[in-house]
Amino acid sequence: MGSDWIATVLNRLEESAKLDTPPSVIDSFDGYRPSADEPFMNPRQQAYFCEKLQAWKEAILRESAGTLSQLQIDSLREADLTDRASSETDWSIELRTRDRQRKLISKIDAALRRIEDGEYGYCEVTGEPISLGRLEARPIATMTVEAQERHERHEKVSRED
Description:
single chain; 161 residues; mainly alpha
């Protein structure tokens, strides 16, 4: 096991980190970006976020398929115990990343369902619109920034008890 293997794992981790951020879909909308100057969650905004979510999900699924095929190709049969332990650690990290992304896919699916139901973009706690900037950065957001902060403060207090 050499520096090539380490470089491969580091590249995979970098790609995985990129998948935690939704891809931009600006090109497919001719430069369109949702604006506060238009009615909130109008059909064009809904289509924009729907496509953004679907593109994000597809990117994660493609990366997962690559991981599966790499797992099938690579074997953990290194003769040296240190090399084997290193390989197992690397794959453990990779599989934990995939598990995190599996959970992310379920959040993406839930957001797509909210678009279908007409509930997307509205805070599940207050019912207020979630800012377009927040949805642009985190299209799976279910709460306004303020509601999310209250939720996190409450969680922190609950954990300390």
